[in-house]
Design goal:
InterPro entries: DUF6503. By secondary structure, this protein is α+β, with helices and mostly antiparallel strands. Helices cover 16% and strands 40% of the residues. It has a 13-stranded antiparallel sheet with strand order 6-7-8-9-10-11-12-1-2-3-4-5-13. The radius of gyration is 27 Å and the shape is globular.
Length: 262
């Protein structure tokens, strides 16, 4: 009996050693380990426009604005935000350090190059520029316009971010499609102080470029009591190019005869 018990124990141990746990081959398994660093609502807006990952894969953006004075072509390096704006009579550039201006004749440039050099890029590259570093998000009161309700996400900036960290934006989106519909924004570049006055742009027409949904037309609205009232003007964007190819930094460098804007 004693010998039989020892034999049974040995057989049991042998069987346990030979019972191998099945090995799972994860070589072809696609595991989703992505965790968004953004709030859920704005993540859904990004996704509705093609996704932040697709946007981050791009190196440059070029677009043309149709203006009464002639076409205005803006070229931007998406990684360092250097830019070039070519207008019929002037060119504005930003090389990462200095904003510069050239004129093709004696016509004076009437705007402020330091205010303008990235302004239209910022409006055009919505909503993706709201994925930049140093941004704070919070839910805010929805916008109700012509019977339609648009949930809102308020955007603020940490101190020291950009030329105007006091700027605030409100992105309003369609609650069913999550596409961006409106942008409310303040202007603090000149005062350097927070403003309570919001301006409004309607984002209604979109075009698909390299898998991303970008504006075709922006419509500015008149406003009263921080609400849009009636249409003011349209601005159309054409010849839009998004590329994964990096631009030559030389195109943004200060050109001969240019004035560096202080």
């Amino acid at each position: 009996m004693k010998h039989l018990l020892i034999l049974v124990t040995i057989i049991s141990l042998f069987n346990c050693k030979n019972k191998s746990t099945p090995t799972v081959d994860y070589t072809d398994e696609q595991l989703d380990v992505t965790t968004s660093v953004y709030p859920e609502s704005i993540t859904k807006v990004f996704d509705a426009h093609g996704g932040v990952d697709t946007w981050n894969a791009m190196q440059s953006l070029v677009f043309t604005m149709k203006k009464p004075s002639g076409d205005e072509v803006t070229t931007t390096d998406l990684k360092n935000r250097t830019s070039l704006i070519e207008m019929p009579k002037h060119t504005i550039g930003f090389n990462g350090k200095d904003v510069w201006l050239t004129s093709k004749d004696t016509t004076a440039y009437k705007g402020n190059p330091k205010f303008y050099y990235n302004l239209m890029f910022y409006f055009y590259a919505m909503p993706f520029v709201l994925a930049d570093d140093g941004i704070m998000y919070e839910e805010t009161t929805p916008l109700v316009f012509e019977g339609q309700t648009y949930p809102g996400i308020k955007i603020g900036y940490e101190a020291g971010i950009g030329e105007s960290p006091e700027d605030e934006y409100i992105l309003y989106y369609n609650p069913e499609t999550y596409k961006m519909e409106w942008l409310g924004y303040t202007v603090t570049f000149f005062s350097k102080e927070k403003s309570k006055e919001f301006h409004f742009i309607k984002y209604s027409n979109w075009q698909t470029v390299n898998g991303l949904l970008l504006p075709e037309t922006l419509t500015w609205y008149k406003y009263e009591n921080n609400l849009p009232t009636e249409k003011r003007n349209d601005l159309k964007f054409t010849d839009v190019k998004l590329s994964k190819e990096k631009l030559d930094a030389f195109i943004f460098e200060i050109k001969e005869g240019a004035t560096v804007v202080e």
